[in-house]
Design brief:
Blueprint: H1 13-83, H2 102-108, E1 113-124, E2 129-134, E3 137-141, H3 152-174, E4 178-184, E5 202-210, E6 213-220, H4 230-235
Antiparallel strand pairs: 1-2, 1-4, 2-3, 4-5, 5-6
């Protein structure tokens, strides 16, 4: 700072003196503010520390909550696994050899008879008949089916239905899902007209498991035992 003696002639000494006074005042104020800044710095540092601690606590709490939830889920699964046995341990019911016809076949044999596996069903789509073959030979042709309907269109719909049934029966026989049952005449109702022309005590039915249901395929009104295979004839007495 210039003193009044060092001022050039063109500078007013009173101005110089006043300017020096102002500088002195400003320096004094800066010295007074320095302690304030020094006191603020530790405050900022402490606030940062508090925020860091709060964030750390929140993060730890979140991790702890997730861990507890995961542990609870594992304990629940362990309890369920101890209560519910695995699928391999569940005893599955054994598939009956007569499949969907398990009840029907046995019911028709309640008065004696024999059951044979049908090996083949041949479809005569012209005469609308079936030729049934079983383990001991041929059962013979079934009775003819007659078309029903008052018009040609109705009869055509009936024809398509019959052919579909024949096709399903033939497929069931090829897959081993059809049976020829020789049963006692006692299980069927007596003829309404009192006819006694069917003197044989045996009749026969053909059943097939078609789409999970037991369906009747054919019926033989009279079975001549003398024409049966000798071994098959013995089965009727068992």
């Amino acid at each position: 700072m210039l003193s009044a003696r060092q001022c050039p002639p063109w500078v007013n000494s009173s101005d110089v003196a006043e300017g020096g006074h102002q500088q002195s005042v400003m320096l004094a104020e800066l010295r007074n503010m320095a302690p304030r800044f020094e006191s603020i710095a530790p405050l900022r540092t402490s606030m940062k520390a508090v925020i860091a601690v709060a964030l750390g606590t929140a993060l730890f709490s979140a991790v702890l909550a997730v861990s507890q939830a995961d542990a609870a889920s594992r304990r629940k699964k362990a309890r369920l696994s101890s209560v519910i046995p695995p699928a391999a341990a569940v005893v599955q019911p054994q598939l009956d050899r007569f499949m969907a016809c398990d009840v029907k076949v046995r019911d028709y044999l309640r008065e004696g008879g024999a059951v044979l596996r049908v090996t083949k069903i041949e479809v005569d789509d012209a005469r609308l008949q079936l030729n049934i073959q079983h383990e001991y030979g041929e059962a013979g042709r079934t009775n003819r089916k007659y078309l029903r309907g008052d018009s040609e269109e109705e009869m055509r719909r009936d024809l398509r239905g019959l052919l579909d049934e024949f096709g399903l029966a033939a497929a069931a026989a090829a897959a081993g899902r059809a049976w020829y049952v020789i049963a006692s005449r006692k299980i069927i109702p007596e003829p309404r007209d009192g006819s006694t022309e069917d003197t044989s005590p045996w009749v026969a039915f053909v059943f097939a498991d078609i789409q999970g249901k037991c369906r009747p395929v054919a019926f033989y009104r009279s079975i001549d035992r003398d024409k049966l295979d000798a071994e098959l004839s013995k089965k009727l007495d068992e």
